[in-house]
Amino acid sequence: MNYSIGLDIGSSSIKASLLRCEDNLVMDEIKFPEREMEIQSPETGFAEQDPELWYHYVCHCIQSLISNNSIDPDTIISLGIAYQMHGLVMVDENLELIRPAIIWCDSRAVSIGEEAFTKMGESYCLTHMLNSPGNFTASKLKWVQQNEPENYQRIHKILLPGDYIALRLSGKCQTTISGLSEGIFWDFKSHTLSKKLLDYYDFNANLIPNLVDNFHPQAKISEQGSIDSGLNTDTFITYRAGDQANNALALGVLNPGEYAATGGTSGVIYAVQNSITSDPKS
Asked: Which of 119, 122, 219 is nearest to 175 (CA)?
């Protein structure tokens, strides 16, 4: 029998499932910690978490699934990662954390994104990036550049929460087009990084990690990742996506004209279209 493990990197907890590949049977599920993870708020409107806590809990969940089900790690052939969207994780040249992650519900960059939307041009943003820069990852990075210049100068790569977990497990800095889109870094017209946004915010494109496909053998578990998690070094990370993209997949919202709504700490409505268009009312 072969198995796959799916992870959900949430802001309240880490969740993991063990899937038997032959018949797609979910063998076991685990959530950790039992109580919600703490969100630090050093100032009003700020929301931060320590990504090393995410990684610690991920390793605990993986080890528990292996142990509780008496699974040989050699039979775990793949790992998939879903994660809380819009977070900002920054690592230095040694791939070590520079500061706590600024997570999705942090609102410190709202005014930065609103100003960018106006000055870059609302029509341009909606036709090229399909959204306002808003309070998304790019605007949070601009806040760091303006308010923590020492930290900004140390940045080697910026990562989303799922990218960071993949980095810790594999040693590889990688992200996806869907991930860049959720950060408002992607230009859908040119199908490249948004040069206009990078220029407006004065960001170097070298801060962006290598791109991989959402569904793809992205990287193998490293020796250190194996020691930490209990996974074999032959196990591939084969999937990563933000929570809403992952929800669309899980709910089967795949064809033009299909809609989904999710309700949680935030509410989201999204739809599949057969053309690259945005909501004109944003």
From this structure: 219
